[in-house]
Write a structure and sequence with these properties.
This protein has about 500 residues and is of the alpha+beta class. The chain contains 16 helices and 16 strands. The chain is elongated, with a radius of gyration of 39 Å.
């Protein structure tokens, strides 16, 4: 009796092809390790196969129904498991090695065609005559085609989109006022992720019937999208002056805006004349389309400080009426207050502590205010500029770049510190890049003004030479630590620096 049960069990398992399904599934799962495939669908198909196998075993011991009642469904569900695993093994492991990854919809089509073929062979082998279903299927197809024409339209549209590669996952598109990144293209819909953390489901037929704008995409070019930052300036300022101030900001800060492309280079143009102001635009190319507003914010902030440094103010509404009722006495009083603040700031600097009150009063009116925003570059390493910067508020980072391109922060300067003395005193190129850590307010002292001070106080030359020797030794020490070799350059002597300062300012050489 036991032998008969085991014989029936083996025969039933063989008829349902359970051993083949189990062995084939295990082998394909080994090859699919680490790949992406729908585990839930495969698990459901395998559970259905187990249910039909169990029913077939029970029917073999107590045959209430035909032998094909459960055997044929067990075979078809088992082959469905194998076909699904084979499809994903082919599309996820082998085909990507030959070229671009095929669209997901191709996997579904391949799986469906494979199941039709396997189902036809299995049913024919079981003795079913499928030719009689052809007339019925034609009528059924016509009925379903009319009932599901929208669904079929989405299916065909999705197939077309994926076959011609007009849209791909990762593209940024705009359609019907909705803008976002394509995250998925399926046979029925396209999923669009917006910058507001929303997912918009668009039927494929909608994409085929409407105009779709693909942002930042051009054949054989990197993905980058041109942005416009508009601003208005009063007519009193020359367009050349405004554009020059904006262009200098773009050139100086471009390396500190990683989302802005270097090619094509950003620029500033005059857009037109409106009622009461001239309209300008800064144009730049955005590389990361997900951070459009934050990058616009950075450009606007740096543009604001650049215009402030150039003495250019934004345009005010034309309806605004300004009535200046200040007397000359009030204006003089405000200017005296400003001078006292400048003199107090000069006294804080060790560089000018030896100056007399008269000399400070001579120097203070010639200082030029220079505000900078957080992250702005005050000066570049290797640039030329005959200015001395005196920090009144805020902090700056001093950074040095070696020949290998490595950048290191050497120091941080704060209120009361000064920098740029090497370029101001000797005409040498800037030895470091200075970046604003936060909002910074400086005074600029140019060569001409400083020359007047040195001519009155030649002893400052000796003091400044001592400062240059100290700072030069610190700079060369850092440069040696960052260099790829161990060569050591001796610091320039104090006497040589004094001679260079005297020559640069046209003074008599020191004996």
């Amino acid at each position: 009796m036991t032998q008969e049960i085991w014989s029936a069990l083996g025969a039933s398992l063989t008829q349902t092809h359970f051993p083949i399904v189990l062995l084939g599934s295990l082998l394909q799962l080994v090859f699919l390790k680490g790949a992406r495939f729908p585990r839930r669908r495969i698990l459901l198909l395998f559970l259905a196969h187990l249910v039909f196998v169990a029913c077939s075993l029970a029917n073999s011991w107590n045959p209430l129904l035909s032998a094909q009642t459960f055997t044929l469904p067990a075979q078809i569900t088992g082959y469905a498991v194998l076909a699904s695993l084979f499809t994903h093994l082919l599309f996820e492991k082998f085909l990507p090695r030959l070229g671009p990854r095929p669209p997901l919809i191709m996997q579904d089509l391949f799986f469906g065609a494979l199941m039709l073929f396997v189902g036809y062979l299995t049913a024919s082998a079981a003795g079913f005559n499928l030719s009689a279903l052809v007339p019925t299927s034609a009528v059924l197809t016509a009925v379903l085609g009319l009932a599901l024409q929208d669904t079929l339209g989405n299916f065909i549209s999705g197939l077309t989109l994926q076959m011609d590669h007009s849209l791909q996952v990762g593209d940024w598109i705009r359609i019907d006022g909705v803008e976002g990144r394509v995250s998925e293209i399926r046979w029925r819909y396209l999923a669009l992720e917006t910058r507001n953390w929303e997912t918009v489901i668009l039927p494929n037929s909608l994409l085929m019937k409407n105009k779709v704008m693909v942002l930042g995409k051009r054949r054989d070019q990197p993905q980058q999208w041109r942005r416009w930052v508009y601003f208005q300036v009063d007519y009193r300022y020359s367009p050349y002056l405004v554009i020059d101030a904006a262009s200098k900001m773009l050139q100086r800060d471009l390396s500190f805006l990683p989302s802005v492309a270097t090619e094509p280079a950003p620029n500033c143009i005059l857009m037109g004349y409106e009622m009461g102001y001239a309209k300008y635009a800064v144009r730049y190319w955005l590389k990361d389309l997900s951070i459009d507003d934050p990058t616009d914010h950075e450009v606007r902030t740096r543009l604001y400080f650049a215009l402030q440094r150039a003495g250019i103010s934004m345009a005010l509404p034309v309806q605004t009426l300004f009535i200046n009722q200040r007397s000359e006495a009030d204006a003089s009083q405000e200017w005296e207050k400003e001078l006292m603040q400048r003199i107090a700031a000069l006294r804080q600097l060790e560089l000018f502590r030896s100056l007399t009150e008269e000399e400070l009063e001579l120097l203070a009116p010639k200082l030029m205010p220079a505000p900078f925003g957080r992250g702005e570059v005050l000066t570049h390493q290797g640039a030329e500029g005959h200015w001395l910067y005196m920090i009144q508020s805020g902090s700056v980072s001093v950074r040095v770049q070696n020949d290998a391109g490595h950048i290191r922060e050497v120091n941080q300067l704060h209120a009361g510190d000064f920098f740029g003395e090497m370029s101001l005193l000797t005409g040498a190129q800037r030895t470091a890049t200075i970046v604003a850590v936060n909002d910074v307010f400086c005074y600029q002292l140019d060569k001409q003004t400083f020359q007047e001070i040195i001519q009155h106080r030649p002893d400052l030359t000796e003091y400044l030479a001592d400062v240059l020797v100290l700072r030069q030794s610190q700079y060369k020490k850092v440069k040696k630590e960052m260099a790829l070799n161990n060569t050591e350059e001796p610091p320039e002597s104090r006497a040589n620096l004094m001679e260079r300062i005297s020559h640069f300012f046209g003074l008599s050489p020191f004996k």
